[in-house]
Amino acid sequence: MYSRFAFFVGRVVEGDEVSLNQALQNEILPLVRAIPNIVSANFHFCRNLEAGLPEIYAVLEMRYASQENAEASFATKEREEMRNALKSRLAAFRGKVIHMSCDMI
What we know:
Blueprint: E1 2-12, H1 17-33, E2 38-45, E3 56-64, H2 67-73, H3 77-89, E4 93-103
Antiparallel strand pairs: 1-3, 1-4, 2-3
Helix pairs in contact: 1-3
């Protein structure tokens, strides 16, 4: 199993948290789950971070059967559609999205 994580490092403009959370859950997550080769995908909304950690708003976890399956999904039209939709929804987000990929053992 292979996992890829997208860390949303930053904060949401005050007053836009509910609408962004709803968009991520109801619009973006179904698009992520429609990307070929994804076994499962979930958003995790951070509530309690240890002192000294960067301000992480949310984490998108995507699981694949293998690294090769993950890499193959990067070039799909479904992924491009999801990325475009996500960009349009991040106007209320002040920060950056960084990625980490891991083998699961």
